[in-house]
Amino acid sequence: MDYGHPIRLVALRTGLSPHLIRMWERRYGAVRPERTETGRRVYSDEDIRRLSLLRQATLIGESIGQIANLNGDELARLVADAKGTIPSSAPASPADRTGATYHRELCLEAIRNMDSVNLELRLLTASVAMGQQPFLEDVLQPLLHRIGEEWRDGNMKVAHEHVASAVIRSLLGTMFVNSRTNSTGPLLISGTPAGQIHEFGALMASVTAAANGWRTVYLGPNLPAEDIADAVARHQPDAVALSIVYPSDDARIPIELRKLARLIDRDIPLLIGGRSSEAYAEVIREIEAEVITDLTDLRHRLALLRSRHDENKVG
What we know:
With 315 residues, the chain is α/β, with parallel strands linked by helices. Helices cover 57% and strands 8% of the residues. The strands form 2 sheets. The protein has a 5-stranded parallel β-sheet with strand order 4-3-5-6-7, with helices on both faces. A two-stranded antiparallel sheet has the order 1-2.
């Protein structure tokens, strides 16, 4: 048998994150990949088929602990018998989106139990059931706000936040890689300004943009204005998106935003969102940038900018 597939390729082909694949392997013996001389996991085509079937089975409500020991044929029959019940990846209807509360509560339960495997499964299930963009807007974005609130109120410990962050960062990273495009669409640069270490808002902005036909350059968190400006000069983007999450009274933020506005072309739209962005609304208006209230607002703004971009190309 040809063993040769690295875990990142397996993740792309199965829809599972590398973290979840390793957890299923370690806890349940779901697959037993070979190892290279340097100790790296390598997977066969049969491993990939098996993981794909396990993913489909868990999405219809089966417990990974109960099905991990089934052979490939048994898993295939299980999934075939349930055909039509596996959630569609198509965008959810308005009625379906009311299930967002249900998904969020299941995710919060997993976080409170510090159960990273269950949290990842719950997030993946919600994403497939609702569709990627409704999942981001109606499940993940409110979930992140809730985690922040409960942490500040003392209802969650740092360990809870770390468990959630590790799983969500892995999921968003996979989404970002899978959604990137080589299209000729407009280009978005995203990141967070200096002092802002919470990167999920900027990552979700990149995923949202890519899913809507934009090319993306994700810079990461905690970037001085000079570094953002350098990236803008190199890539000449059609827009820049920054996320400001916490705190709402950082004296560095107005300084960094004013500096960035001086360093980049004023014709490039500067979109600033995140939970604390409205606290800096005065300086955002001063530098003629825009406050983005949430991912839905961002999606609509990007659609308008792309329409203008396409009109200019035709013209």
